[in-house]
## 1
Amino acid sequence: MANRVYFFDTTLRDGEQSPGATMNQQEKLRLAHQLEVLGVDIMEAGFPASSQGDFDSVRQIAEQAGDIQVAGLCRCMDGDIDRCWEAVKHARHPRIHTFLSTSPLHMKYKLRKDPEIVLQMIEAGVRRCASYTDNVEFSAEDASRSDRDFLCRVTELAIRSGATTINLPDTVGYAQPDEFADLIRYVIEHTPNADKAVFSVHCHNDLGLAVANTLAALRVGARQAEVTISGIGERAGNASLEEVAMALRVRQDYYGLEHGIQTEQLYPSCRLLSMTIGQPIPSNKAIVGANAFAHESGIHQDGMLKNRETYEIMTPQSVGRTSTNLVIGKHSGRNAVRNKFEELGYKLSEEQLQTVFEAVKNLADLKKTLHDDDLMALVQEEIYRIPDRFRLRHVSVQSSDAGGVPPTAAVLMDVDGIECSRAGFGVGPVDAIFNVIADMVGREPELEQYAINSITSGTDALGEVTVRIRENGHTAVGRGAHPDILVASARAYVNALNHLAKKEKEGERLHCQHAEQ
Ligand code: KIV
Ligand code: ZN
């Protein structure tokens, strides 16, 4: 279908390269499942050669995937390609995505290779991929800063060697929409075998133009958009899936293009990602931010009452912003809880179900009705946490505005399986908690960021705290949720310390953009 756009989601690969967005295996599996529900055509599950952890999670995602295509990224090198195939081959529809830089700058300084050698590497690499599968994507890294005619030679060669998708990335977010559209049109028109491949774009957001550049390229013949949920990704991120999908849907009259994204799943997908990586959705974020459908001014409100279309170009329902739905409460039975989690896309074992069931009951004692977001936060807390070196048992805090009586925290926790308790002071209650916990685990991390957000509305809502800490050159993000925001703070801090400890143990993983070719 000439007017069908394929959505290639790279949240689990490029998205995971964004600072603080690291996910564990279970979290990746949950998100992968959601990408299928969302109607993504191809998901890039990771970069298998970068670490054993990445290999395992790509393999597991491939094994569990349904009809969605599962891609793995690899450099144009035999070892990487073989490893990638080993991981993705378990999918019903596997894809190998290989890449090599083609700009003069990258070839000279990053690869230290002559263009003719680069062409030979592309030919050999793509041929090797094609020996495994006929679903091969080749990316010309830094395409937007490459010589146009060289790019045509690269494209022609990659297609001749077996690539069925050609991706032309704006790797550093440098391109401008008209200029980028012109480049894509030029390559399509000047590559003799262009009709044998799908053209794709992958735009970064360094100048805030990732979505605009993606749409401009689709207008002139690209038919695959590489995007991420909420636009997360390396540096300023990638083109955001929800914005590209809704621009094509709302302005179908302009683009004349179709896609298979179930737009009602956009908000649930962004919300799931936000909970998983502990980064709140900014309130002014297009499509999914809290203010995206809020009308503040009197004139706008008046217009809306007369006819919604005066100020609303899409409905909240069309992007899945329904008023939060039913609801588990104190009296819900085990089956209702199981069904609800299944409906939300979580496959829980009996043991996990028991754990969340108890947590649901405890939370329902504090809060009358639990919404979907509460339940998602709960699974995140109870099931998806990485195995903890440090485990918080209880925290008690004394706050005070009387001079000379500093806020005090007392903490009971397990440190490497040994129960210990300690008390201490701070400038404020959060400072007191963090001081005590840091002291107990024998660390002095710098707190780079502390954010608090309420998961639903109402004063009895769960508070969601996210912290980012740094020590010895490693950063880690932690997240905690609880109706008491000080408990949520303590949980978030302990969670970050666990991530930090894990990171130090594994060493920083190899990310493709830093990798030597
Ligand atoms: O930004 C980029 O060029 C990439 C490629 C590996 C596709 O992420
Ligand atoms: Zn990228």
## 2
Amino acid sequence: MRGNRLFPAVKAYLHVPCNVRLHDRVVALLVVFFIALLGCTQPSTMENGSTVVFKHGKIAGDPAHLRALLDEFERRNPGIRVKDEALPASTDEQHQFYVINLEGKSADFDVLSMDVIWVPEFARAGWLRDLSHLLPPEARDEFFPGPVEADCYAGRMYAVPWYIDAGLLYYRSDLLLRHGLKVPRTWPALVAAAQHVMEREPGIYGFIWQGRQYEGLVCNVLEVARSNGGEVLKDGRCVIDSRQNAEALRFMRDLIARYGVTPPLVTTAIEETTRHIFGSGRALFMRNWPYAWNLFQREGSAVRGRIGVAPLPSFPGRPSASTLGGWQLGVNRHSNHAEAAEKLVAFLTSPDTQKRLALTIGYKPTRKSLYADADLRREQPFIAGLYDIFMHAGPRPVTPYYMMITQVMQSEFSAAVSGIRPAAEALLSARRQIDHILEAER
Ligand code: GLC
């Protein structure tokens, strides 16, 4: 921050015209230096303790819940203030912000929340502080293994798991009951149930999901593909152009173009688009992350008490497959308040804070023991069933090159679900491009 104040002063000096006499230039330089010094001695955050800047994605729901926790942290740590700054909700936009600012060695923020797919990339670039001491090996067992693995790079921990995500099937329990239908366990059963209800309930969408060309689409496609036995990488080799993946991707296109249970609008939808549609009572099924549950059960919600949550369906004879998601807290390597920043990370990932975040915002704990917590089970009975889903959720490839791989998947998957390219062709093209990335990596 202080560095930024120097820039206008330096610029002002550089703009003193060259024909000004040397004496005047020296005076100008001194004035400018004095102004810069004033800038530096403005009441700095260091004098009254540290102000830790905490960057995170936009909170779905009421941001006051997070602020209340941060206020409590301030009360417990006199001398540390926390300024929280929200970035857009989309993971891709947040990633762009961090790449630009961390690459530029910005010290404007101290604690950052990171998508589970970014840590190896950020750690490899040297942008994160080593936080291994916050999570010694014996403490790691308290967390779900997926995020712990994702936060580890070259044997060191560069982040602490904050909250965990996995794809779920939301359904309208009232509509299924009214039509004598069961919660579908397979994709064909989901299509049949959706068609049945759509014929009898005008204006209802059958199944909505996230189909815009962005990271969320990759999560959605991987779930359908893996529930057909497909994969992206196997033993370091790209196997994305398999028959199983082609069938799955074709099925997703068919949901829109052949079975008519998914509206074409999903090809531009992200999490919040679908959450709003389902939350206003206009869809029978929705794929989304766990956060949506709390919002649906709020007072005044059109679907309160009329929804249920289940594992995602699969192709017959195969297990359900959720994508592992979630957010991690790390400390900017260039932070000027590293000690205070680490305290904040420890506080926000503590069992108590994770429990309160689950009860208020609906962020699901990364600490396994909280799934047996009596209060959480009473308030959110479905949390018990999430434990197994989180244990088995499938991570996206854990590599510093993931962002390059996902760019390829995003554009090829999007072309296939929007009907621009046949699924098999899109996957072949993805395989060739990913092969190039993997070769460059070797
Ligand atoms: C959620 C997940 C994150 C994922 C993103 C995709 O925020 O937690 O891991 O990448 O959705 O949109």
